[in-house]
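Quarterly update from the structural biology core.
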Amino acid sequence: MGDQCMSFQDNFKSYKFPKLGLVRLPQVKIDKEIKESLGLKRDCLNLEVLRALTEKGFVEKQSKFNQARLKEYRNQIEFELNIVEELGFTDYFLLVWLVINKARDLGAFIDYGRGSCAGSLIIYLLGITGVDPIEKQLFFQRFISKTRAKKEIIDEITYIYGDLSPDIDLNLGGVRNEIIKWLELEYAGKISQITAISTLTGKILIKDIYKSIKEVSEEEAKRVSDMIEKVFGIVEDIEKMPEKSKSFKKWAEENKDVFNTCLKLRGLIRQKSVHASGYLLSFYDLDGFIPVELNKDNKLTCSYEMDDTAQVAIKLDLLGLTTNEIIKDILSNIPEKIEDIELDSNPIVYDQFQNDNLLPYGLYQISADCALRVLNQIKPKNINELSDVNAISRPGSLSFLKDYVNNSVNLPHELFKNTLKVTRNQCLYQEQVLQLLAIVGFTLDEAEQARRICGKKLVKEVGEWKQKIFNRVKDKGFPESVGVYLWELMEANSKYGFNKCIDENAIVEVKSLNFQKVIKNQFELTWLDDPNFCYVLGFLWGDGHLRKVKNKYWQFIFEIDKSDFKEVKPIFDNYFKYSYYLTNRNLKIVSVSFLSATLGEFLSNLDFLNKGTVAPLQILNALSHKNAFLLGLFDADGCAYYDPKWHASRLSLTASYSMDYTFFKESFPDILFSIKRTVGPKGNNSVLTCSNKAGITKIFNSFYQKSGAELYLTRKYQKFCKILKLEPKVEKSISVKHSRSGNYILAYDEKLKENVLEKIKNVYFNTKMAYELCCSEFSIKCSEDHKILTDDGMKTIKDLLNKPLVVKTKNGYYNPIISKTSELIKTIDLEIDSEFHNFYANGIVVSNSHSTATSYTSALSVYLKYKYPLQFYTACLRGAKNLSNPIDEIALIESELKYFNIKLLPPHILKSEIDFSIEGNNIRFGLGQIKGIAEKNIIKLAQFKHEFSNKFEIFQGANEAKIPISILHSLISVGALDSNIKESRAFVALEAQTWNLLTDKEKDAALKFGSKFDFNLVKTLKHIKENEKNEKGKPIIKDSRYETIKRDYAPYHEIYKENKKYENFAQYYFENQLLGFGYSFKLKDLFGGEIQDLVNVGTIKDMDDKTYVHVVGQVMEDIKEGVSKEKKTNYLRFTIKDDSGKMTCMLFNDRILDHEDQNGRKVKENDIVVVRGRKMNDAIFADVVGIQDIKIFSRLSQLKKSEETIDLQKELNLTNP
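Predicted structure, tokenized:
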């Protein structure tokens, strides 16, 4: 035996990892057909394939992009591709693309995505997600960051750090199983499921051990286990419970043996299963280097848990959410395509949120009670606010709801405002905590560590940060209140936070800035070196006027042709906040209005208030792109045209009579202009004209080739080209370099200068300085690795510190001595990208990737529900079979249909299809969706589905189609065969059971003679027994056989007799049990004859508090008994439902005892109860709860054992009930 063991052990070989934690990505093979379709060679590298696929996606989607930002898209694509290549993730991206592509080929609907991958433009262009990250300002660095992800090359093989690799969850809908089978073929032996281990928790142990040792009741054990608290979904350690609960402490002292046993057993493995969606994928055969096993489904499973698998291979989360299948079903039955549905602010979506009558069923992420309560308070008006709803609807964030709604939070420091303004000063996201830590000076490594601790909800580790936070806050000169605030946030977010997408590297470009003095006002202004902005200033000078409203507010107004406005709008969107509308007198003209104190002050300082009488000399002297300003002026007031009268090309500028356009002429001193002043009915004008073709050509070149401006009006450009006989450009590309960002002030602050100079002495920048430098908007020269300032960079800062610093105050920067205000364009003029630098440029916080992506799916579900309710509910009903309790789902859906004037029609043997189907403006119940009908019987049911002339044919048809008697009984009980039978359903069910007792010959005889007895089976059988012989002259049914039939018939007849006592209720019962709703009778009507003043459950919620109500309902499963924490009141809570709705009922203290005494027991699931009490706070505070003693039988096992048999002959007088 020993030798055998040694021989067995000798077969094992040790596996040497290159380095623990390093993972080699699985090999990804791209079919030659795909490469050829992309125009690539068969032997090309996978990186070339990824680039080609990305380019293909860009070409297909670029028409949807903001055309002014195409260059930004191009730059981002190149940036992401370089990072992906550098970190070795190319094959991972292609693997995910292959899975998604395969799923689409199989007919799957791919949603908008989930997780931080929505911040990647490449992922979007590959069709893996559905949200444009550029448009939504999502950041790639939250998904993949060089500071987090790393690779190593060993023996020319690239390895990545598995626990730092990208992680993309893929929702494959109904094709998930097919995708898994495909992957198992493609990666045989290299793919496995992942083990999931659950341990014994205190709550489970207390309940089970207490029952075992003390032999207490289920209710008593549950009462004690319910004392154990859950904190944000995490069960409290039972060892700490005596300190937190006096009741539990008393129990533990009285039951020391139980409590000590539980302490010893906690943490032991309770059971082992497989992860619901996780699959492990490796380059190597898994059984060669990690422990694997076959699970109960005979599938290869890695014996490591999820967190450990990242050390050896990569993980794919393959989801199969029903939501995707439902949306796919709807989209296949409506005229709209998903790409044509606008979801950012569509009134069909957001109007539904502005009242409290939203019908929640089927609404992705917002149908749960908690999310619905949050949504009803926030009432989101756009996709960003809907994203916040999803973020707040989580245990750790619910405490923020009130302040979020009221926007009432006072932050402990001004520097925090810019980070939290987008979420109304609430810190909803883990990454916002990280950002605030950065403000007080934590390094990038420390901040990253904090993010990971928060993400893993490691409560203990978060606690260790408390002292670190307070020490750092103190060292950096912040008040202690900042430390208290940060610590509370860290603690709360460790328990439950939501992922927010921000740029952790704060990578921005360094741009040169011009500081020019405006002589008239004797103060400094910072100007962007941006020709597009120069163009905008020229456009504003040429069209419109500045005024002061009520001597208080500055307003700038101009009017523009509607088609022209479409071209300039993208630029205006990035530079200004404004409103616009179509004028009443001419719907082709847009009136644009800027209402801004700082913008007005800014423009007034540039003589915009007097632009009708003065030239813009200050602007022209300050600008480095004068031609761009003049181009803007021309687009506003100019025209290029051919004069047929004089056969000449002309260029003209038309202005008001008093406006001085001499400066335009002086800008082109070698070109001849004429100035003509006219007086006419439409006003007095001054027209500047150039009729010299050479001059016009020079102006054209100055405008469109030398100005640097990418923005211009296409129609004027084309006229220019026409008169000069030039070929116009096919398209123009506008790259928006800056964007608006609130108000700035100009300030002198000697302390700030000293502070900055002191920090410059350090080798690296810290967080606070980085913020101040960003706000200063000056050009800094750094070394190539951006770690150390060069001497020139140091000199630049020192020089600029003698000039005013622009310090942002409206959005959160404290400082300053105010000298003059103006709104400037936001720039971020510093690039920091190393482990030594840790800040977030100008507090960039954008919509988080996961929340934004999932919120689009939420918005889509709302849109489809309210635009196409018939298709929506039909799809939901079809999808119910894939959920854990289809009958409950059907009941919920049916309760909402009435609000859309849709009926759920009952199943019908001829009209019903196998699945739910649309019938006119209603929905027909599918035969295959009746409870208890297994998938294997669907084909049989289809064969059975045809016209029958009598019930015996129905019985025989079911027999020939091999329909089980249980299914036939269900069809009868729900009324699917009502059109073919005259008797009650209970009686026909009895006869169907009797038919099932007969032999084939007995059935043939019954079919032959049934018509003589109106197809009454008992009478027919008696006739056959007494009168009919077979071909040999012997009785078809012998006496002994008849006695056997009588014996087997007896218990079914007993069931019939019991159900006949409550026949109408039995019909209601079976419909609800098997269909999820009752259509023959309403519960109130069944009891209304005996009990007066009953009301429908659904009407109670609209009654005033303290209204006395009397109601009948069926008890649902959520029954709870306990003691309230505040008043220590004993309570019994349960929910009842009827056809109109559901309502919570509460019994307190002595009324619980009275209830148990009167009924002999407490309520349980499916009881029919009559409740009397008062409506209080969306519940019934009950005085009396009476359990109705009604029993409906459906199985023989429910009958009491009895030796009694029933004489079949005595049953011949049965009449139709």
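Residues 102 and 182 are 9 Å apart (CA to CA).
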